[in-house]
Amino acid sequence: xxxxxxxVFLVIVSFSxxxxxxxxxxxxxxxxxxxxxxxxxxQRLIEIFLLILFVFSMIFFPVGYMLxxxxxxxxxxxxxxxxxxxxxDKQYMYHLIEAGLFLALLIYICIFF
Length: 113
Hints:
It is a single chain. Helices cover about 75% and strands about 0% of the residues. By secondary structure, it is an all-alpha fold. The longest helix is centred in the N-terminal third of the chain and has 25 residues, at about 5-25. The relative contact order is 0.16.
């Protein structure tokens, strides 16, 4: 991956942070600190499995693509679990935005690289 990838990645992360701030203001969502707290122990185990899979997949595939796929899969999982089991918190909106932006970045990278 080139410097261009990391620059676009940084722009996407900054844009995601700005969108999260706007959504927090508009919908009155209270984010519980920097550390994510899983909804259930099953979700925690799935995330640990995905992390282990990500670490081993870095041996065979480019790190940039695997990083994006990891973020997309983690955020999609968190979106679904929170939307299904804690819809009143509305924190699933954060993960929906992040998964969408990382998916857009992955499509951008696949088209232009």
